[in-house]
Amino acid sequence: MADLIVIIVYFLVILAVGLFARRMIRTEQDFVVAGRRLGPLLYGGTLCAVVLGGASTIGGVGLGYVYGLSGMWLVFAIGCGVMVLSICFAGTIRRLRVYTVGEMLELRYGAGARTLSGVIMALYTLLICVVSTIACGALLSASFGIGTVPAMILGGAVVLAYATAGGMWSVTLTDIVQFVITTVGIFLVVLPAAIMKAGGVTAMKAALPPSAFSLTAVGADAILAYFVTFSLGLLIGQDIWQRVGTARSARVARVAGAASALYCMGYAAAGAAIGMAGKVILPHVVSRDAVFSAVVHAVLPQGASGLVIAAALAAIMSTSSGALIASATVLREDVWPGAKAGVGGGEADMGTMRLHLLGLGGAAILCAALMRDVLAALTIAYAVLVGGLAVAILGGIVWRRANIQGAVVSIVVGSLTTLGTMAYLEDIYASLPILLGLGSSTAAFVCASLLFPACHPSIGARWHARLKGAEPNAGILQSSSGAQND
Q: What are the percentages of helix, strand and coil residues in the chain, rounded to 5?
C-alpha cells in the first residue's frame, strides 16, 4: 500500500508541474522548444531525461541480469552518441535554428526531401513513445499486479495530460523533477541496496560465472549493433534535435550536453550492476523486462521501493513525453503542414498541435498493447531512423557536393534495404540490416549526388548564411530573443 501511495503522489506532482507550466506558454516557440531559453542545469537535466528511458532503465537492468557487465553496452552507446552530438553537431544544430530534421533537409537541399524524411521521423518518434508505453505498463503491472494493458493506458494518459497542457515547458519542468528522482532512486537507493543484498562485490564474483564480468559476453555483433544503431541514432533523432533547440546558446548545448553524456555512461554501469546483483538475489526471473521491478521489491522495504519504481517511471515518462512532442512537431511541420492553424507574428493557435498530441498518444498506447517487447520496439525504431536518414542528414552537413537527388535516393534505398534485410533474416537485433542499409544508402547518396547537378547556388548561400547566424529562421516559429549563439 505504501508503494501505491508513493506512485499516486508522484503522478499527482507530475500533473501539477505540467499544468503549472501551461502558464509559461505564450507562443508556439514556447510550446515546441521552451522559448530557446534553457541554461546548463535545465538543459543538461532534460537531455539526460529524454535519452534515458524505459529501454535504458528496465532494458539495461535486464541486459545486466542476462549478460552481466557487458549488458551496459546499449546504454553506454547512447551516452557515446550524446557525446558526439554535443561536441561535433550541437553547435551547428543550434545555429541552424530549425525545428525539425526535415526543415534542415529542406534548408540544405531545397524542396523535395522534407515530407519523405518527415514520415520516417514521425514513425521513429512514435515508436519511441510505444517503447516507453510498453516499459511503463510492464513496470506498473509487475509492481502492483494490474493488467498490462490497463497499466499502459494509465501511464500513457498521465504523459499525454501534462504534455498536452504545457508542451515543451511542461516536458522540461517535469523532466527536471524526474531527473532528480531518477538520480536518487537509481544511484543512491537501489544500486547500493542491491549490491549489499547480494553480499557485496566479492560475493557476487563468487556466485556469478566469469562471463558475467566480461565486457564482451553479450557478443561482438550485439556491441557493434548497439553503437551503429543507437550512437548514430542519437545524432539524428528529432526528439534529440528538438532538445538541442531548447538551449539558450550553442555553448550550453555543447558543454551541458557533454556532461549529460558522462552521466549516461555512469547510468549504463549502474544498470548492469543492478542486473548482476539481481541475478544473485533472484536467479530465476523469467522475463528480462520484469527483473528491475523484482529486484527493487526484493531489496527495499515498502515506501522505499515505491520511490525507486517512481524513479524508473520518471525515466520512462521523460522519454515518452519528449518523443510525443517531437512526433507532433514533425507531423505538423513536415508531414501535414496544411494543418497549421494560423500564424500571427510568431503567435499561433496551438489547438491543432494539441489535437496531434492526443491522436499520436492514443496511437502509441494502441501499438504498445500489440507489440509488448521493449527492446524489440526500440531496435525497430532506431533501425528505421539510422538506415533511412543518417546518410542524408550527416552527409548534407559534411559534404558540400551533396544534392537533393542524392538525399532522396539514399533515404529510399537505405530504408528499404534495412527493413527488407531485417524481414529476410527474421532477426531484428542483428547488426547486418543496419550495416547493409547504411552501405547502400551511402552508395546511393554519393552516386546520385555526382550524377546530378549540385544544389542551386542560392540554396548553398542560404545554408551557409544560417550556419553563420546571419539569417534568422523564416519559419512560423521565430525566436523572440534573437540569435544567441556563441
A: 80, 0, 20
- Of the candidates 357, 354, 378, which has an alpha carbon nearest to the alpha carbon of residue 368? 378
Residue 284, all three cell numbers: 530465476
Does 461 fall in a domain?
no
- What is the rounded distance in angstroms from the CA atom of residue 178 to the CA atom of residue 355? 25
Cell 532506431 -> residue: 382
294 contacts 278 by C-beta, under 8 angstroms: yes
How crowded is residue 204: how many other Cβ atoms within 10 Å of its Cβ? 21
> Does any domain span residue 485?
no
Which is higher by pLDDT, 459 or 468? 459
Closest by Cα among 2, 485, 3, 1 to 244: 485
pLDDT, tens only, 368-425: 888 766 667 778 888 889 999 999 999 999 999 999 999 999 999 999 999 999 989 8
Nearest to 86 by CA among 124, 35, 127, 48: 48
Residue 479, SS3 per DSSP: coil
CA distance readout (Å), 125 to 200, 300, 322, 351, 470: 40, 35, 9, 21, 31
Expressed in angstroms, the distance from the first to the final Cα of the chain is 51
**Backbone φ and ψ of 247, nearest 5°:** -65, 145
Q: Tell me phi and psi for residue 352, to 5 degrees.
A: -65, -40
Residue 48: give its domain's CATH number. 1.20.1730.10
- Domain with 115, as residue range(s), is 2-23+36-337+350-386
The number of domains in the chain is: 1
Say how many C-beta atoms besides its own lie within 10 A of residue 50's C-beta. 29
Place of cell 507531423: 331
The residue type found at 306 is G
- The answer for residues whose C-beta is within 8 angstroms of residue 322's C-beta and 6 or more apart is 46, 49, 50, 171, 175, 239, 242, 243
Q: How many CB atoms lie within 10 A of CB 145?
A: 8
pLDDT digits (tens, 9 = 90+) for 41-82: 999 998 998 898 877 888 899 999 999 999 999 999 999 999
Dihedral Cα 146, 147, 149, 153, nearest 10 deg:
-20
Alpha-carbon gap, residue 90 to 196, rounded angstroms:
40
What lies within 8 Å, CB to CB, of 444 at 6+ separation is: 406, 409, 410, 412, 413, 414
Per the domain annotation, does 414 fall within a domain? no
pTM for this model (two decimals) = 0.85
344 burial via Cβ count (<10 Å: 0-12, 13-18, 19+): exposed
Domain assignment present for 111: yes
